[in-house]
Q: What sequence folds into this?
C-alpha cells in the first residue's frame, strides 16, 4: 500500500484528549468504549495513514494513552484552557511543518481529512485551515503551520480561549468536507454514543 503524499508526511496528527468531559460525567472520553474499542483507537486508526507522525494531547491517563505507541503531550499551560492549549503544546514539540488536529470523541473521522485540508491550504495560500461540514465550521478540525505557535501562545496568555476568534486572526481557508458530514459527529452523551456506535458497526464487514 502506498504511503501518504509528501505534504502529509510533513504533517503531525494531534488527537485532542485533554478536556474534562463534563457532559460525559467527567469520564475520559478517549477511553470510553464504543463498538468494543476505546474511542481514541478509532480516531488513531483513521488518522495514522494520513500523517507522518502522531501525538495525543492528554492531561490524565497518560500511561494508557502512551500504550498506543504515541507520544503524549499534556497542556503546557495550567488551568484547562481548552483545545487551543493542547494545540499549542503540540506546536511547541513537533518537528514537522504542519499540525492536523482532531478530537478524541469523533470516531467516524474522515479517511481523506488530511488531503482535503492540505488542498484547501494550498488553494487559499493560507496558514491555517478549518474543516467545514457544508453548514458550519468544525473548529477543532484544523490544519496549521508550526510557526503559528508564538501567536497562539500570545492569544492564550492574553485570556483568549475561543478557537474561532483566534483562527479569524490568521490567513484562514476552509476545507469543504460536506461529503463527510458524519465524520464530525462527536460523542457527548450516552444517546449520541449509541447512535455513533450503530454507524460504526454498520461500517464493519459482514462475518
A:
Amino acid at each position: 500500500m502506498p504511503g501518504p503524499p509528501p505534504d502529509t508526511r510533513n504533517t503531525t496528527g494531534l488527537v485532542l484528549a485533554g478536556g474534562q468531559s463534563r457532559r460525559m460525567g467527567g469520564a475520559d472520553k478517549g477511553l470510553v468504549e464504543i463498538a468494543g474499542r476505546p474511542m481514541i483507537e478509532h480516531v488513531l486508526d483513521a488518522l495514522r495513514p494520513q500523517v507522518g507522525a502522531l501525538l495525543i494531547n492528554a492531561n490524565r491517563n497518560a500511561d494508557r494513552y502512551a500504550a498506543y505507541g504515541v507520544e503524549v503531550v499534556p497542556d503546557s499551560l495550567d488551568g484547562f484552557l481548552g483545545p487551543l492549549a493542547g494545540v499549542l503544546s503540540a506546536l511547541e514539540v513537533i518537528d514537522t511543518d504542519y499540525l492536523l488536529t482532531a478530537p478524541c470523541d469523533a470516531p467516524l473521522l474522515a479517511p481523506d481529512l488530511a488531503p482535503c485540508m492540505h488542498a484547501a491550504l494550498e488553494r487559499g495560500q493560507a496558514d491555517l485551515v478549518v474543516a467545514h461540514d457544508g453548514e458550519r465550521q468544525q473548529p477543532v478540525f484544523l490544519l496549521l503551520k508550526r510557526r503559528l505557535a508564538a501567536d497562539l501562545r500570545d492569544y492564550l496568555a492574553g485570556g483568549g480561549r475561543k478557537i474561532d476568534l483566534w483562527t479569524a486572526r490568521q490567513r484562514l481557508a476552509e476545507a469543504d468536507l460536506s461529503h463527510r458530514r458524519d465524520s464530525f459527529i462527536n460523542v457527548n452523551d450516552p444517546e449520541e454514543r449509541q447512535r455513533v456506535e450503530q454507524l460504526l458497526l454498520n461500517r464493519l464487514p459482514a462475518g
Remarks:
- Residues 128 and 167 are 7 Å apart (CA to CA).
